[in-house]
User: Fold these one by one.
Assistant:
Number 1:
Amino acid sequence: MIYCLQHLKKIGSMEISIEYKPQVLNQLQKLPLSERNKILKKLRLLELQPFAVKYLKGEFEGLFALRAWLYRIMYGCNVKTGRITVLSVFHRHGVYK
């Protein structure tokens, strides 16, 4: 199941929606408030520039990674529907393991 947190923005003629897997919400709650706020700020920027990030290769091909200080936000994007699904938020040392 995927939760949508009502993040809708229009980019040109495409409407972008951001959804979060349930584990992402759990991961965010475990972080200190200051770190959580930094990550949420980055997620808001993702609405404006969904493809200005690192495209992943190999095992994670088809996904994107966004840097948020010491953390990485891993997500997938459906270009046709404009739906972004945030899959995980991890410290940079453990995100790709």
Number 2:
Amino acid sequence: MFVCKTNRIVIWVSIYLKENIDWADVIITTGGDGTFLMAACRIQDREKPIIGFNTDPTRSEGYLCLPKQYSVNVNEAIEKMFKASFWIE
């Protein structure tokens, strides 16, 4: 799980603690739909965004995660997020 707070990125692996989630501005998961759902069920604030990257886009769709193009090009997705120019239709 990636947690971003004011341009600082902190990386935790499978630590979905309430304090971490409350502290973060956005939750970014890496894995698949199951990982996305595991993190999402712990978020109490409906205004807190959650973004999922599919770590195996060649073998699974990841319907809750970002489209495959961003899972294979994570830098592009993160740049768009920081620039607030991220749109998925």
